[in-house]
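Problem: given the chain below (172 residues), write out its structure.
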Amino acid sequence: MSTASDTTLPALSVRTLRTLAELVEVEGFWREHAAHPWSDLDYLRAVLAAQPEFLRPHVLVLTRAERTVALVAGSLRRERFPFKIGSFVLWRSRARVLHVGTGGAMGEESPEVARAVRAECLAALARGEADAAYAHQLDRGGELARALQDVSALARDRRARPSAGWLLELPA
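Solution.
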């Protein structure tokens, strides 16, 4: 007969990689789990890092018992947000935005991992590392999307904006 302690998983820990050089530490896991071209490690290094708005990587590495179980590939970027009335732009504010793009969440998909990612994203905002966080094209039914929706109404945009990747209309 098993007891509660027999089925308890070891604690999950989160570490943030903030330099391109540090990404070597998780290269094997990343290459094994990347499922989308935009989340490809070489794409981050060659394309994103070359963009003028790119400040640095912001990659969350989640480990349990010293074994990587999940990774969230993100980046910190400079952005300008327009404030408009109709189509008239009043001004543009500058912000450092933490981006997690399509396919950026890799590995274990559990409520525990999702809550840890949410907590670390909110902590990065609280530490002043970023002014805003943006998750692009997450699986709306996935654990991470649910966890990110479970924050204060003041802390997130309540208007989900579904977007189609590719759309093809077939004739009857």
